[in-house]
Amino acid sequence: MNTIVTKFGGTSMADAEKFRKVAEIIKADERRKYVVVSAPGKRFKGDFKITDMFYLCYEKAEAGENIDALFSEITCRYNEIAEELDLPISLTYELERIKNAMYNMTGRDYAASRGEYLNAMILARYLGYDFIDAREAVFFNNDGTFNAEYTNDVMSARLKKHERAVIPGFYGAMPNGTIRTFSRGGSDITGSIVARAANAELYENWTDVSGFLMADPRIVDDPKVIETITYRELRELSYMGATVLHEDAIFPVQIAGIPINIRNTDRPQDRGTMIVADSTEYDTKNVITGIAGKKGFTAINIAKDMMNSEVGFGRKVLGVLEKRGISFEHLPSGIDTMSVIVKSSELAGRLEYILNGICQEAAPDSINAEDGIALIAVVGRAMVKSKGTAAKVFKAIAEADVNVKMIDQGSDELNIIIGIEESDFEKAVRAIYKEFVN
Ligand code: ASP
Questions:
Q1: What pLDDT is recorded for position 22?
Q2: Which residue, by CA, sits nearest to atom 8 of ligand 1?
Q3: Which residue from 38, 110, 207, 247 has its CB within 8 A of the most atoms of ligand 1, so it is best to mutate?
Q4: Contact yes or no for 38/116 (Cβ under 8 A)
Q5: CA distance readout (Å), 17 to 6, 84, 404
Q6: Residue 130 pairs with which residues in a beta bridge?
Q7: Residue 333 phi/psi, 5° resolution?
């Protein structure tokens, strides 16, 4: 029988009622053999995520403050879940151990990881599945980077010993055995690691939305859900600010070519978004897959006569940024001009210095910097096959009375990036969406 790895996010695991829904989903398909969970998230607006409470507890303990009240709130939340599910499980011993560890300064990451640890124990018991502690099967290197291959070997061997299991997300072990977490939202990465190790046919990531939307719903009213998206398209959109899945969650499954299906725990009937390696089996009717964008960029505009024939000009300019540890985002150029687009936050407090550096190294005829730039990425794997996409994008923008400052089309024709003034950002996104989606 094939295997599906499921991962449930914090909002899907927030209370006993959600646990019931999760169990129903898991039991509805017997291929759902391995389950990765987050810590309980917010139950309502204004509520606290357990992970944040654990972080706070640790900080208080570190500052020598009493954590009794806060810790008993955490205890209550877990006990409430276990009691409402009628589970014959006592977490008292585990919770006491964790509390003592807080006072003994066992580590900030250890504290944060306990949210997932306890949740996975409860769900394993509720489902009648085994529990695998991520500490024994997810590993980091001494420099804190994730040790992908060793993890894959150990995790695969471990999964073979358990027909069905629940694994806590978000953390693993350092070579000396201490706990280390991924960055926030990192249970998505654990899900992907388990999917790869289980050689799963599918990685289902259950969350509180029915997939990726074609545009930001704060800008476009009721945008459509993206049915299928390739890993590379997703990377383009995530880079530009679309968030649902942790960015690093792509890599483990991408290596193994396993698709990811983003699903909504509250609406299991929705098909969600499929994230796939190859688009050929998943053709799309839409020329564009999605639109995303960000504000907060600066363009450094450089002009020099005969720039095109000056060997090494680009290297000199980029060398100035490199020496100062600044990465650039885009590099549109003309015959005698080039612009370097950089995040404004990277230049804060040192713009003059950078401009002087470029003047000294590359001796341009003129140089200026323009901040307040927003970038919009129009992403679509079907662009390569369809004519007139750029024309449609620019017609839409022109009709919305937006001035284009920069255009950059990736050589793979997967995206068109447009630089505009920040004040035109929302208007431009809406205009492009309307042009392509009806
Ligand atoms: N619980 C962790 C967080 O809040 C990890 C996760 O939910 O994926 O960031």
A1: 98
A2: 185
A3: 38
A4: yes
A5: 18, 8, 50
A6: 165
A7: -140, 155
Task: Give yes or no for residue 39 CB within 6 A of ligand 1.
Answer: yes
pTM for this predicted structure: 0.85
* CB proximity list for 267: less than 8 A, separation 6 or greater: 210
- Going from the Cα of 184 to the center of ligand 1, the distance in angstroms, rounded, reads 5
> In the chain, which residues have pLDDT < 70?
241-242, 279-285
pLDDT (tens digit, 9 = 90+) per residue, 379-397?
A: 998 887 778 888 999 999 9
Q: What is the pLDDT of residue 283?
A: 60
CATH superfamily of 290-436: VC0802-like (3.30.2130.10)
pLDDT for res 98: 93
What pLDDT score does 281 carry?
59
pLDDT at 280: 61
What is the assigned CATH class of domain 4-276?
alpha beta
57 Cβ neighbours under 8 A, 6+ residues apart: 67, 70, 71, 74, 102, 111
How many whole angstroms from 81 Cα to the centroid of ligand 1?
18
Which sequence spans correspond to the domains of the chain?
Answer: 4-276, 290-436
pLDDT at 279: 61
The angle subtended at Cα 49 by Cα 43 and Cα 51, nearest 5°, is 150
| Helices and strands in the chain, H and E counts | 14, 15
Of 312, 38, 2, whose CA–CA distance to 189 is shortest? 38
Q: Where are the beta strands (DSSP E) in 97-201?
A: 130-131, 165-168, 171-173, 179-181
Q: What's the one-letter identity of residue 19?
A: F
| Residues 129, 133, 134, 136, CA torsion sign | negative
Taking alpha carbons only, the member of 161, 396, 429, 387 closest to residue 290 is: 429
Ligand 1 atom having least distance to the Cα of 49: 4
Q: Quick one: pLDDT at residue 282? A: 56
Instruction: Give me the residues paired with residue 377 across strands.
Output: 292, 417
